[in-house]
Amino acid sequence: MGAGDFTVEVQEMGHLVRLIVGNWSRLGQRTWKFNIDHTEVKYDVVVKEYDALVEMVRGKFRVFPSEPVLLTYDFPYLMKIP
């Protein structure tokens, strides 16, 4: 390569996902609360596909293939409507 020649690597963007273990409790009609399991480690990961996310969850939290995985989501606090 001569002076001024350079290579640019383009990567596909992913989604930043925070993995938190817990369970949902129903408080009333259309009202739910997520109870975080503070004994589990939390992870921030970047994913590009849903299937990759499920496999990542299974690996990080040691979930066997025979065990079902339920993934739910919630918006960050600053994105919620008061």
Describe the structure.
The structure is a single chain. The longest helix is centred in the last third of the chain and has 11 residues, at 50-60. This protein has one helix at 50-60, and strands spanning 15-19, 22-28, 31-36, 43-47. The strands form two sheets. A two-stranded antiparallel sheet has the order 1-4. 13% of the residues lie in helices and 28% in strands. The protein has one helix and four strands, in the order ββββα. It has one domain (15-79). A hairpin with a 2-residue loop joins β2 (22-28) and β3. The radius of gyration is 19 Å and the shape is extended. By secondary structure, the chain is α+β, with helices and mostly antiparallel strands. This is DUF223 domain-containing protein.
